[in-house]
Amino acid sequence: MSDDETIRQTAPTRRDAIKYGTALVGSGLVAGCVGDGSTGTPDNGTPNTDEGHSVTMEPVGTVEFDAVPEEWLAYTGDYADMGVALGQADGLEAIGVRARFGTHYYEELPGVAVDDAELTQLWNDGTDKEVFYELDPDVNVVDPNFMVNRLGVSEGDVEEIRDNVAPLVGNTGFTRVYDWHDDYRYYTLYEAFEKMAELFDEQGRYEAFVELHDEVLGDVEDRLPAESPDIAVLYPAGVPPESFYPYLVGEGSQSKQFRDLDVGDALAANGVTDAQVDGGTIDFETLLDIDPDALAVRLQGEITDAYFDREIRSHLEDHDVASELTAVQEGRVFYSGLTYQGPIIQLFQLERAARGIYPEEFAAADDELFDRQRVADIVNGDV
Prior knowledge:
- There is one protein chain.
- The protein is of the alpha/beta class.
- 35% of the residues lie in helices and 13% in strands.
- The protein folds into two domains: 6-210, Nitrogenase molybdenum iron protein domain (Rossmann fold, 3-Layer(aba) Sandwich), CATH 3.40.50.1980; 221-379, Nitrogenase molybdenum iron protein domain (Rossmann fold, 3-Layer(aba) Sandwich).
- Strands 8, 9, 10, 11, 12 and 13 form a six-stranded mixed sheet that branches. It has a four-stranded parallel sheet with strand order 6-5-4-7, with helices on one face.
- Strand 2 and strand 3 (61-65) form a beta hairpin.
- The two termini are 38 Å apart.
């Protein structure tokens, strides 16, 4: 199945009748083999004016629309954040898990807001196909292979959602540890963001974010010290923690802020396996053997400084073993944010990580790495 094969939305109205090509069968989900065999657009996603608006993204190939989608859902917060960045917040109907979508970050952006309480949560001890029918979106922004392999949705139900509700567009890119993703390409955060800009026909906002992002990274790189520390990214197995799920600083978008800050991965260097592979944990004794320069503690939801100080940092400082860690003694234990980050949330989490890893260079109270008003202006269409 090539990227040139297409899925067509040929309805004269938004929902009256949607026709697609051949159904997903067997291993077709993983291979991305869906489509009607006709020639679409190349993988640059440029719309073909003779055949309507389209976007090409593995694993599903090319999807064609008669109109730009208005109502949509995103399973993971990275894609939801991309949509918000592109001015599509009003059309967002649902999210996989509300606590994993960092809407609280938008509170710092004038005129930008998403009330996650108004979003349908797709995960409820599983994800039922009926919720897709109830929402009736124009597009489902989710990798179909993620639905099958991580959410437990059957291939038959994925096909049904695609055929009877709306197309699926999306590629799992927050991590690169899943073996079921081996057969098709990954996208970086900004590569995926560009695909979403093509989906929503919002290239102007996308290009403005690229310009801002490059300026921020250039400033950060100029300020980084010569020596790079080794960090450990951890998710508490309980609060207060006695053990942690380890996350490696890989190529996925969840680690972009750490790659931008040029840090080493203390866990990977010592043979620790990512928790997303085997679900294993490590204790304080193991951490002390590794002794990272900094501890980046990941938690979902809106975490206040007071909560983090009370439940994480103070606990480590008072702990018989954890208190011996270099990161604890030197004050480099910090809240690293959420797993899922699109272009807006990533800027906030880059700033937080810079302050936590390099306090001497970035921790001044008034030192903001990016202009909040400029971000808000882009989101609100002033590009």
